[in-house]
Amino acid sequence: MPAYKVIYFDARGRAEPTRMMLAHAGQEFEDVRYTSEEWAKNKATTPMQQLPLLMVDSRPIPQGRAMHGFVAREYGLNGANNEETTKIDIIIATLEDIFDPLGRILFYEKDEEKKKKDLEAFYNEKSLKFLDALEKFLVFNKGGDGFFIGDKITRADIVFYCGAEAYGRDDVLQKYPKLFALKGRVAQDKKIAAYLEKRPVTSF
User: Is residue 17 within 8 Å of residue 68, measured between CB atoms?
Assistant: First the structure.
């Protein structure tokens, strides 16, 4: 059995789907969280001089999507066939359409007044068409009272949960009751619940 190490900062961010998938799979892993000083010392040793990074024994896997894709394929979380895997890819791409622009507003907009206006437009307008699409994807699978694909948690559900946490506005998410309920179901998974209970508390 390979040894897994997830390397990131002390945050959920782009490492959290990989952490949660490993937890759901029952796979032990070392959760390495660099301080800025530690990162400065180790940056040059990483393949792309950026984090997150997954180490599988001595093999480095950079890039968050590649990391959780690798784990999903290893542990049967990436769909049972090509059709299911493609649906998972569509859902993850839709989630990225939400959270990439949100990240740009939160972390790169320095004008606080503009940030406030951009966030208001994002939550009340721009993100809604993607949430609507995700709700329809979920409902398409047996009425939306289970998971995105099939009868069990997949990569899509875990990436959605991490995204819903990052979204940070349950008042908006509650307008999509099937999605909001899915967030709760993922959190109630026995192994994921145990992970969530012990993980470090961070702001993002």
Answer: yes
Q: How far apart are CA 137 and CA 194, in angstroms?
A: 28
Structural domain including 44 reads 4-75
Q: Please indicate, yes or no, if residue 196 is contained in any of the structural domains.
A: no
Of the candidates 72, 177, 184, which has an alpha carbon nearest to the alpha carbon of residue 134?
A: 177
Task: CATH number of the domain at 168, please.
Answer: 1.20.1050.10
| Cis before 52 (ω within 30) | yes
**66-96 confidence digits (pLDDT tens):** 999 999 999 999 999 999 999 999 999 999 9
**Euclidean distance between CA atoms 12 and 179, whole angstroms:** 20
pLDDT of amino acid 114: 94
Over the stretch 153-167, which tens digit does the pLDDT of each residue have?
A: 999 999 999 999 999
Same-domain check for residues 91 and 154? yes
Residue 48 covered by a domain: yes
Tell whether 201 is covered by a domain: no
DSSP 8-state code for residue 153? -
Among the ranges given (108-112, 190-194, 197-201), the one the predictor scored with the smallest mean pLDDT: 108-112
